[in-house]
Specification:
The chain is α/β, with parallel strands linked by helices. It is built from twelve helices and ten strands.
């Protein structure tokens, strides 16, 4: 009798496994920001939908605050298969694909409407970049809106380009570094997770980030001023290892694609509200410097050479993207 029961159990187990009842695919995601940041919340929405729609066959695990990999390490970790998924600033691909830094060319995308057009799936700007990144072995699943770039400073406010002269400035991309050099500063490339200590210790005098980072990383505790330059559009990518992607079933890929498309559109639409809320919070903690039309004109003039530097570094693809951006 025991042999019969045992045989029945094995046969049933094999049958259930063949039907995918016990099968579970685990997808780990590395995120450099805290889970409470809007990028983390975006991932939680994705996780909830994917696990529900897959009936539990897809299990999403999120590792926030750079627990597994720093932002700069994510592209290589994903493309090599060291981790299945990850979130990284688009500029982290600039070493192999310099054209990705288009979004960090100063004032290339001065308003939300132009950003939406440029980042729309299949746009003449996004499509070539997605295709180029895929060749590295990491597939972009969706883009995460982060908002416009602002400047933080301690002790001395920064209002005009001349105020940057001689200052050490934290940046998160090569083209942003060119921007800093164009206005007389000294750029220091640094991961977002290292910002707080760098500001606290005085390793740098100023830094660039997005408004929503100020409350989530508590940067108001170590910096005094915020200058609303909005000189660049910050974009993050959610990536999946291409071999892992190809190993999923058609149904699983469809579930992931649908969820990614939904949460991307949802975040893009509410980005303005998120930045407005972050600004209101910041005003209670720091001195906010808003720029006049003349102030912005001065910044644009002082940094106008950066677009030529970008095209020189990014080659034909960079030139193609600048032309496409100018037509938006």
């Amino acid at each position: 009798m025991k042999k019969i029961i045992s045989s029945l159990f094995v046969a049933t187990s094999i049958s259930l496994l063949s039907q995918g009842v016990f099968a579970e695919t685990k997808l780990r995601i590395s995120l450099q920001l805290p889970i409470k940041h809007h990028l983390g919340q975006n991932l939680l929405n994705f996780q909830k939908e994917v696990e529900k729609e897959s009936g539990g066959s897809l299990k999403i695990e999120i590792y926030p605050s750079a627990q597994l990999y720093k932002d700069k390490e994510v592209p290589q970790a994903v493309s090599s298969g060291a981790i299945e998924m990850g979130v990284a600033s688009i500029t982290r691909f600039a070493g192999t694909i310099p054209a990705v830094d288009l979004f960090y060319v100063p004032f290339m995308f001065p308003d939300a409407e132009k950003v939406k057009k440029a980042t729309a799936p299949g746009s003449p700007i996004r499509a070539p970049l997605d295709a180029a990144i895929l060749k590295t072995g990491a597939r972009p699943l969706w883009w995460q809106a982060f908002g416009g770039a602002i400047i933080l400073s301690k002790k001395d406010p920064i209002k005009l380009p001349t105020d940057m002269k001689g200052k050490k400035v934290r940046v998160f991309g090569k083209t942003l570094g060119e921007f800093v050099k164009a206005v007389g500063g000294a750029p220091t490339l640094m991961s977002g997770s290292k910002q707080f200590l760098a500001y606290q210790r005085g390793t740098v005098d100023a830094g660039m980030t997005g408004l929503t980072t100020i409350p989530s990383r508590k940067l108001y505790q170590v910096m005094d001023f915020v200058t609303l330059t909005n000189h660049a559009d910050i974009e993050f990518l959610v990536l999946i290892n291409e071999k892992v992607w190809q190993g999923l079933s058609d149904k699983e890929r469809a579930i992931i694609s649908k969820a990614g498309k939904r949460v991307e559109a949802e975040l893009r639409e509410k980005m303005g509200k998120l930045e407005a809320e972050a600004l209101e919070f910041t005003k209670t903690k720091m001195k906010v410097i808003e720029l006049s039309a003349d102030d912005l004109a001065a910044w644009k003039k002082a940094s106008s050479s950066v677009v030529d530097t970008y095209i020189k570094n990014a080659g034909d693809l960079g030139k193609q993207l600048v032309e496409a951006a100018n037509k938006l």
